[in-house]
Amino acid sequence: IRFNKDMSFVNKSEVKEVLRKIPENTSLIIDGSKATFIDHDIVEVIEDFRKTAEYKNIQIECKNLSAKSIPFTFRSKKGGIL
Q1: What Cα–Cα distance (Å) separates residue 5 from each residue in 16, 52, 53?
Q2: pLDDT at 6
Q3: What pLDDT, on a 0 to 100 scale, did the predictor assign at position 37?
């Protein structure tokens, strides 16, 4: 799954639906490199999915998600968090 834009709470149900459809015994990469902002609600959905994925043998790798749940207005021009 690649987030190609900012992910706000508006996208929460869409993300839940996509994750729900991931089949058992799958390797999944969730890539947030192209998003400048990922809402905390989206991060929570992913964390909830991680808990259930273990029982379905779904391996998850997250790329570039953690710091993006902080609004871009709190970032410096060099990408550091202020």
Answers
A1: 17, 26, 25
A2: 85
A3: 87
**What's the residue count for the chain?**
82
| Amino acid at the residue 60 | I
Residue whose C-alpha is closest to residue 31's, from 58, 70, 57, 5: 5
Helices 12-20 and 40-53, axial angle in degrees (round to 10): 20
pLDDT tens-place string over residues 29-58: 999 888 888 888 998 999 999 999 999 999
Q: What is the pTM of this model?
A: 0.75
First to last CA, the chain: 29
Cα–Cα distances (Å) from 56 to 44, 59, 66, 76, 77, in that order, read 19, 9, 24, 40, 41
